[in-house]
Amino acid sequence: QVQLVESGGGLVQPGGSLRLSCATSGINFSIYVMGWYRQAPGEQRELVATIASDGNTKYADSVKGRFTISRDNAKNTVYLQMNNLRPEDTAAYYCNAEYSGLGRYIYWGQGTQVTVSS
Description:
Blueprint: E1 3-7, E2 10-12, E3 18-25, E4 33-39, E5 46-51, E6 57-59, E7 67-72, E8 77-82, E9 91-101, E10 103-108, E11 112-116
Parallel strand pairs: 2-11
Antiparallel strand pairs: 1-3, 3-8, 4-5, 4-9, 5-6, 7-8, 9-10, 9-11
């Protein structure tokens, strides 16, 4: 059974920081591309950042220089360090695992809420 469990969300003031974690089980974590997506109310889900199995990272333009994605293959966990948060970063954040090889496998976590407000 595949599980992706996010944690670390919450309420933070503008300019503050949060670190999201996504602990996984049931997948061969090291071969998956891991990603963070977010969805604000009334908006479509959007890509925030991804990290490939070789550590290569990609970021949405809106978070470049403020967010950092990382992974710990020994702990089967992916992280998103979010600094200098802005009100427009408010959203539900979802962890994603994707593998394309012999078949395509995509898994999602249940989401964690991040609210940036004074």
